[in-house]
Design goal:
By secondary structure, the protein is mainly α. The protein is 82% helix and 0% strand. The protein has one domain. InterPro entries: TMEM64, VTT_dom.
């Protein structure tokens, strides 16, 4: 698959996510979480598993904005369960993309992201100690390009153990900030509509 195809899929995913959000707004899902939960309950035990799978996929192949899917998880499953499902999916996806890059190298990164972004952040990998610190801080922050940084970490000498520790300890704070912030944004937009 070419870089252009991946970008087209990403754009399609973004448009699809916007359409889904518009539909959810029009149906009252963001103002009535019980309605969304009732809809998801039709999938039974598969609903959380499907959502976790969605989160894993969106980390590996960024077809939808991660923050938007995280807010959807909070809205759909409630604050605690939504956080847990987001956390599980994003952590598994981050570890998977790290291992994929570790195995296949920079070629996979260039297929999944823009070369401009790759070049912009690649410079941080030249000094392992500085990259480790930068990576740890970036994972804690909610606005960092986490997926790309996880890919770049796969190119460095960072151990899998260290990577997993940073992801498991760093993701909760940024995930809470993203999810809470986007949930609040959805509520503000709903009031305008």
């Amino acid at each position: 698959m070419t870089n252009k195809n991946i970008q087209n899929i990403t754009h399609f995913g973004l448009i699809l996510m916007i359409l889904i959000c518009v539909y959810f707004f029009s149906q009252g899902y963001f103002t009535n979480p019980q309605l969304l939960q009732a809809t998801l309950s039709k999938a039974g035990i598969l609903a959380p598993l499907l959502f976790i799978l969605l989160q894993i996929i969106q980390v590996i192949i960024p077809i939808i904005p991660g923050g938007a899917s995280s807010a959807l998880g909070i809205t759909a499953f409630g604050a605690v369960n939504g956080f847990i499902y987001n956390y599980i999916g994003i952590c598994i996806g981050s570890i998977c993309i790290f291992l994929l890059v570790r195995k296949y190298g920079h070629r996979i990164i260039l297929k999944l992201c823009k070369k401009k972004d790759y070049d912009k952040y690649m410079k941080y990998t030249y000094d392992q100690n500085k990259f480790d610190t930068f990576f740890m801080l970036a994972i804690f922050l909610p606005c960092a390009p986490d997926d790309l940084l996880c890919m770049l970490a796969g190119l460095t000498h960072m151990s899998l153990k260290k990577f997993v520790c940073i992801i498991l300890l760093g993701k909760p704070l940024s995930l809470i900030a993203y999810s809470y912030g986007l949930t609040q944004l959805f509520q503000i937009i709903e009031r305008w509509l």
